[in-house]
Amino acid sequence: MTDQNPPARIGLVAATAAGRRHADTLTAAWPHARLIEAQTVADALRTAWAGCDAVIAFLATGAVVRIVAPLLDDKRTDPAVVVVDEAARHAVALLGGHAGGGNALAEQVAGLLDARPVITTATDAVDLPGLDTLGWPVQGAVAAVSRAILDGEPVRLIADTDWPLPALPPNVRAADEDPTDDGYRLLVTDRVVPPDERTAVLRPPSLVVGVGASRGVPAAEVAELLHRVLAEVGLDPASLRCVATADIKADEAGIRSTVDALGVPLVTWSATRLAAVDVPHPSEVVRAAVGTPSVAEAAALLGPDGRADDATLLVGKTATAMATVAVARHAPRGRLAVVGLGPGAADLRTPRAVAELRRAAVVVGLDQYLDQVRDVLRPGTRVLSSGLGAEEARARAAVAEAAAGRAVALIGSGDAGVYAMASPALEYADERIDVVGVPGVTAALAAGALLGAPLGHDHAYLSLSDLHTPWDVIERRVTAAAEGDFVTLFYNPRSRARDWQLGKALGILAAHRSPDTPVGVVRNASRPGEQVHLATLATLDPAIVDMYSVVVVGSSDTRLVAGRMVTPRGYRWRS
């Protein structure tokens, strides 16, 4: 649940020419990073500390420690600090590893400088999720419960309802699995909890406060009412997901100031949308003034995404002279990440794909694809594996797990949206689920890179499998690609049971193209046993092709240049 983007304001501090060169590398990649200039390095470091979200110091670790030690205040507000040595061999996450994003920043710096990230926080060292990295506010005995998780002691997970948490280790067990009431506890709730030395509390984003106000309402009046209402019903403001109001109040300074102080988004709805929500306390006076019988209650129920049927009104409208507040609790929504793993090689797997796999509590996929990523999954991840031909069952299983409120990753080879698992899954996924698509490097792109530049102009992807598409439909599409003179890529080109379709498709193309049109066959692109074969429409032997292959047939413009397929783009500067 951590943010993979670098902080908004990064201050770079360097004392030597080598350090400044490394800083230049970072500023080239991150326009929001800047080198801090001052009379002394210590002054530069203090300036960066005061004005930046993160500091990257190209200095000795000891020097940085001595300079920043007097500046330390609170890990929740102090900037992250990463230290890089003179030779850029190591990027050390010195401060703010979790709360400030220092660990992630060290990894990003290491990637840009070809260095090794040095991360010493205990949970990261043993590949467990830190409680302060789950993306939600965490309160209470965080250090004690984190230590218990690390030490393998029993920790009871008690949640008001199912929330899409990432995988937690086996010693963190749900309350119904471990009914004992002693020991350490991890609570997931929006309710106020009396503090104790053995309980940590995760605050899910479950609450929405709806606000209505008269023009010119003071911010203090809005804030006081909001906090008083939450306190009276025992709800913690750390679980606020957003504040919602009518769009005509979007520029109301008192509301905006309150929202800014809370650090949550302001969501606005039109009077028409608000008027369509059934509320317990409608007002004709309000309707006459703003065009809807309810602002606070209706906005609280609509919440951030307009799904009032997912919400329960906890506090009806409560008013002061100029402000009105209502509070709704929104049910958790499951999370389904549809993840493309790329063509096979680990270094062609995107960082976002890895992040989603590590965020998921349940990972669903084909057995051979799961084998590729088991080393990425966190301890405690539940894996649902099945074999070839079970695509529909995998899609249904992933959606069912997400609909139950869990964080799920459904994996596919290449890009999950290209002849893979995204479309069958999204046929079943309804509005109860948040869906995240994670693109991957397709087999066609991997094959194209190995062959040269065959995809430099318009091209068409076609699957020759007639298991789901009748052959007469496939034949019409191949004919259209031939007549349109597209570079044509064949997926699922040939299997033991389907050994004639590729020859038929090549014959259709040959009727519209020269016999010497280049054809490339790539088998196991980026995987062990990778093979690249170049031929022509006249010479290709379909027998060398199987289901692990991608076949790329050039257009009339495609040619071989130095043994590589090239389809010219036709840039004018070439003429």
UniProtKB/TrEMBL annotation:
Keywords: Cobalamin biosynthesis, Methyltransferase, S-adenosyl-L-methionine, Transferase. Residues 336-540 form the Tetrapyrrole methylase domain. GO terms for biological process: cobalamin biosynthetic process; methylation. SUPFAM superfamilies: CbiG N-terminal domain-like (SSF159672), CobE/GbiG C-terminal domain-like (SSF159664), Tetrapyrrole methylase (SSF53790). Residues 207-328 form the CobE/GbiG C-terminal domain. InterPro entries: 4pyrrol_Mease, 4pyrrol_Methylase_sf, 4pyrrole_Mease_sub1, 4pyrrole_Mease_sub2, CbiG_mid, CbiG_N, Cbl_synth_CobJ/CibH_dom, CobE/GbiG_C. Pfam families: CbiG_C (PF01890), CbiG_mid (PF11761), CbiG_N (PF11760), TP_methylase (PF00590). GO terms for molecular function: methyltransferase activity. Residues 44-124 form the Cobalamin synthesis G N-terminal domain. Residues 133-204 form the Cobalamin biosynthesis central region domain. Pathway: Cofactor biosynthesis; adenosylcobalamin biosynthesis. This is Precorrin-3B C(17)-methyltransferase. It comes from Micromonospora arida.
